[in-house]
Amino acid sequence: MKAASREAQEQVSGQLDELIRNSDNSVATAAQIGTELFLAVDQLDRERALRVAVADQSLDPAQREGIMNDVLGNKVAEPTKQVLAEAARHEWSSPRELRQGLVNLGRRALLNGAREQGQLEQVEEELFGLSVLLEREKELTQLLSDRTATADKKRGLLASVIYGKVTVFTEALALQVIGRPVSGPVDDLAAVATEVAELRGKTVARVATAEELNDSQRETLAGKLAQIYGREMAIHSEVDPSLLGGMVIRVGDEVIDGSTRGKITRMRADLAATTAY
Question: Which of 44, 103, 121, 196 has the most other CB atoms within 10 Å of its CB?
Fold first, then answer.
């Protein structure tokens, strides 16, 4: 996002947080706002003229707010209506960035709800777990990546897989991600899991091991990585038997390969270099 859009999103985020915080039932309000913002984005996706009009900087804020209210005001509850009005009043760098801002705000609302419910860490773990599941289930991932399939069809397919197995917040976020692909189901879900970790004030370490880590091992590893990187770490772990032993750790663009497979690969490379001489 460009500077104007980042500033607009920050300002609207403040109002969103306040609306949720001051409501009688913060969890229900957060869930409602998040769900309704995604519905608003669906309509913006369908109506290019509306998308352009509510981000048109040649119009004054009251005009943009009026357009947003005329089209969407009677389709959402009052808290969501206030968020949409605030978004319309601010200046965004482009209609595309306004749309993305509303997606981000919808996610933020749901994550606020998860935090109020004490489920934020669970949502993070479930979203990453879904990304690992899809990485393993190639046929399902292919169906969810099908560009000829409608968003509703793909959401229905994923819902049939995860219904009742994750929190309502995880389900809502996952279905939103699948319906609005950026890179692909696996990477998009992992990216939202990373956003949740950042909201919790943590940096993600993706850890692949030959055998599943237990809670004690995860806690110990998180502590060691926190000492190395100087910040709290969230461990997103997955099992990869092909590593044979040890682990591979990814923090941002940095990779630490301490796996048995990696050691064998390096030994072979060293042997080949020695033989070449």
Answer: 196
Q: Which two tokens stand for residue 82?
A: 């206030």
Instruction: Extract long-range pairs of 220-229: CB within 8 Å, 24+ residues apart.
Output: 225/249, 225/251, 229/203
| Strand 247-251 to 203-209 pairing | antiparallel
Beta-carbon neighbour count of residue 244 at 10 Å? 13
Specify whether the backbone of 270 is left (phi greater than 0), alpha (psi in -120 to 50) or beta. alpha
Cα gap 30→63, rounded to integer Å: 27
User: Distance (Å, rounded) from C-alpha 268 to C-alpha 196?
Assistant: 40
Q: Which residues contact 76 (CB under 8 A, 6 or more apart)?
A: 36, 39, 40, 84
Distance (Å, rounded) from C-alpha 116 to C-alpha 123? 12
- At residue 5, what are phi and psi to the nearest 5 degrees? -70, -40
Q: What is the spatial distance between Cα 216 and Cα 208, in angstroms, rounded to a whole number?
A: 16
pLDDT digits (tens, 9 = 90+) for 199-244: 899 999 999 999 988 989 989 999 999 999 999 999 998 888 999 8
Encode pLDDT of 76-135 as tens digits.
999 999 999 999 999 999 989 999 999 999 999 999 999 999 999 999 999 999 999 999
Q: Which tokens belong to 206?
A: 């993706």
Alpha carbon dihedral 154, 160, 165, 169, in 10-degree steps, equals 40
Q: What is the pLDDT of residue 10?
A: 93
- Domain spans in the chain, listed from the N-terminal domain onward: 1-117, 118-200, 202-271
Whole-model pTM? 0.83
Cα(20)–Cα(112) distance, integer angstroms: 8
Residues in the chain: 277
Find the distance separating the first CA and the last CA of the chain, reported in whole Å. 52
